Amino acid sequence: MSRVRRTTLAGGAVGWLFAAPALTAIAVFFFLPVAASILLSFTDFDVYAVASRSNLRVVGLGNYTRLADDALFRTAVRNTLYFVVVGAPLSIAVSFGAALLLHAPLTRWKPAFRAALFLPVVTTLVAVAVVWRYVFHPRSGLLNALLALLGVGPVDWLGDPRVAMPAIVLMTIWKNFGFNMVILAAGLLSIPERLYEAARVDGAGVAARFLHVTLPALRPTLVFVTVMTLIGDLQLFAEPYVMTQGGPAHATLSVVLLMYLEGFRWWNMGYAAAIAVALFLAMLVPSLVARAVGTRPEVA
Amino acid sequence: MRLRTDLGGIPVLAVLVAGLAAASAAAGCRPGADADVLEFWAMGREGEVVQRLVPEFERRHPGARVRVQQIPWSAAHEKLLTAYVGDAMPDVVQVGNTWLAELAALGALAPVEDARAALADVPTPAAADLAAGADEFPGVVAATAIEGVRFGVPWYVDTRVLFYRRDLLREAGVDAPPATWEGWVAAMERLVHGGERYAVLLPMTEWEPPVIFAMQRGATLLRDGDRFGAFRSPAFRAALDFYRSLFQRGLAPRAGAARSANVYQDFAAGWFSILISGPWNLGEMTRRLPALADAWTTAPLPTFAGEGPGVSLAGGASLAVVRTSPRVDLAWRWIAYLAEPDQQLAFWRLTGDLPARPSAWRAAGLADAPRTAAFWRQLARVQAPPTIPEWERIAAKITEHAEGVVRGDVALDAALAALDRDVDAMLEKRRWMLDRAAARRAGRVTDGRDIAGDGARAHAAPDGGVRS
Lengths: 300, 468
Hints:
heterodimer, A: mainly alpha, MetI-like fold, 13 helices, B: 468 residues, D-Maltodextrin-Binding Protein, domain 2, 6-stranded mixed β-sheet, 22 helices
């Protein structure tokens, strides 16, 4: 009995020892900065405070009340929500469609197509942005040339506040759909063929098979893809940063971009930290919803 | 790509960071660790080519070495601030004039008057001029003075003039560039050909055009010792109204940054004929538009009233010595060397940056050369924007509200009121610090803990334990 206990204790200690390097790294590089940001969000830390701590004021919830009042922050929230609400479903739909096409028995050269469609995901965003700026160019761009064939007048994609965000959505979908497509394609592969056979025997058509076999079987994958896309989309940053810098007229200013500008361009670290905390709270929502959905007993 | 938190990557990152730290510690990477190596940070293209001026300096100063570190403009601001916090500043830095106020507020820079003592035994005329503040453009020097104390020695100067298509203007019946805005607007009306093209490009992402108009109208931009915005003043209102009218009358396209990516093609195609721009385009246009040859030239800015040229912005970059540098004597010698007319001209040939010394202009005949003459005349009429750390933020706000007005989203007076409100909020901290400093002075308390200007003027290390 006593021998067993000793072993358990020693085993526990050894376990902690093994985990220690990773835990230390996580504490130092993750939890510490997070705690520091939260504390920072209650101060007016700025460039003057860098010069001397005596210039630092504790403002309590001041940054948060300012946030509630800030028209620019409201614009950023509106833009980000637009991007999420319009962009995420479209992006998932395109990924799903592409995955179904890849999975179709008639499709040949599957690996080649999969690689080609995945290519934008691994391409450097800055290079993609340069190319897309040409595509979006109002007078010599490819997109407007195609629209002209349909008789639609030239659109100033990145210069007109009304269409700048749709343009960013379009580019982002093209850039990112391959990632979800690969995951969904893998999900499709894991559906046992016998389910389809059984459905066919029961007289189910293509639509019925899709609705009653494919969709239920893919549910966990779809939930995963949706949550990851929502979380990713809420953090929209790099696309507007390289394409439009948040313009025109703040039409593509996202919450993370605003945070970056406040923090690193204007060095208002206190205010930027408050934006970060607000964004963190906003992102908790889809994560919690996903957990609730994901832990519900399987109906299929 | 979106920012994604990847917990799995963190231990790897930690090992990497630790490894880098160990490697740099072993190599003695901290700038200024060696006794005679002068660490110099320069930005962008300047950082690339200044290397070629180093051998001559090293020849004249046996035993001394200059290590140039090139920093991209986009990362420079952040890097300077983090270097200051991390006590890893070089000995000499190139600083955009609009950043001087911020670095001076940090107490990071040595005042230029220190050069007098440091250069006492340097026999060159440039060193004497530098110590005495002679052979300079007064308007540009004003841009380097923060509350009366100079913190940078102008390295090259920058101002905005008109670049225009001489051929297209001539076609429109304008042979000589008008001296007034009224004359230019009349010329522009003839250039637009009923709306199929525009006359002038005013990128809405640039704060310079509306601010230049405001300065020409005599607006002060800020008031009460730069404590509040003064954008509801009649002068600023008139300037923004003029700016808006250029768009409203179809003379300027409502183009943002995205469209200006092809500014050279558009200029060559005659989509617009006039551009308010700076010296970098002298080289760029020659290089990118060889086909245009002599079809374009430059002119000083017109005025709204009175003698020309109209006021333009005093810009450019300066060289500054870091206050904590252990090699201040060598640092000032390096700056005095770069300020010599010969080096200034060599630098102009390498970069196209306009020399900061009038004597260099005269020596090379730049003052009379076709395209640079406009800059020479303009440099006699330049004015610096407010030299406070908040200026760049304020400038961005001006752009933001001016864009709203141009797009017709906001009425002019509503935009000006909003601009004043936003700028007043930005300056809240400055007001608090100025008031506190005033209260201290009134109470005869001088502990060097004051704001920006005062702390920097006393050259005392700002206390509070940030720096040792």
